[in-house]
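A common beginner's mistake is to predict each chain separately and then try to dock the pieces by hand. The better habit, illustrated here, is to supply every component at once so that their relative placement is modeled jointly.
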Amino acid sequence: MIGKLNHVAIAVPDLAAATALYRDTLGAKVSAPVAQPAHGVTVVFVELPNTKVELLHPMGEKSPIAGFLEKNPSGGIHHICYEVEDILAARDKLKATGARVLGDGEPKIGAHDKPVLFLHPKDFNGTLVELEQA
Amino acid sequence: MIGKLNHVAIAVPDLAAATALYRDTLGAKVSAPVAQPAHGVTVVFVELPNTKVELLHPMGEKSPIAGFLEKNPSGGIHHICYEVEDILAARDKLKATGARVLGDGEPKIGAHDKPVLFLHPKDFNGTLVELEQA
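With all components supplied together, the output reads:
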C-alpha cells in the first residue's frame, strides 16, 4: 500500500538558523521559506536526491506544531509522510484494522495541494504518520 | 555534502507487532529480523521504493536504544541517516563549524558495513543525525 517516503518533517525553533544549517553546514539544496497559513506553518524544503526533508516553523496562533516545540524546544522530527495511490482506499483499509485516523477521517488538501490524512502515533510506534495521495 | 536519505530509524517496543504493522497494515515489503549484536539492536528493514525505514528493537544489556524506549514506551523516530561521499571530509567540515560529533569522532563500521558517524541532536534541531559513507 505505502509507496515512497515523500518527506520527513522536522519542527525547528529558528527557521533561518535551520535553513543555514542544512544549506551551509550540511551542503544541501534548500528552498526559500514558503508560508502556508492554511497549515499554520512556514516551510523550507530541503531537496535530497531521493526524497525531501521539510523544516517546519509555526505560523499563527493555532499552529499544529507550536505545542510540539514547547515540549521539544530544540526541535525534533515531527512526522513522516508516505505516499499512497488511493487515499480513501488506504483510509478504509487502515480503519478496518482498528488504526485511528486523526480528525474527522476525511482527507484534507495538504501542503503539496494533494489529499492527506494523519494517523494516530499510538497506533504507529509513537510516530505521527501522514499519508499523501501521490 | 549530504546526499540521499539512507534511512529513517524507528525504535519499536515490539518488533513482531511493528513488522506486522508495516507488512500487513501498511502493505510494505519487510525483511526478516536481522540481529546486530555489535550495535545492540535487532533490525527489520522496510523497503520503500526510494529509501528504507529501519525498525529497531533493543538487543542486549547495553543497547543504545533501551533508554530511548524507556522515555518513549510506544516507540518513536530515533534517528535519520544521510549519505555522504567522504565521511572524514564531512566530519572535518562539520567540526570546523562547531557541530559536535558523538563518541571519539572516529567513524565506526555501521549496520550496513560502511563507516558511520552520529551528530549531536542539540546541534541539528533536536534530531539525531547519522552520516554514512555511501
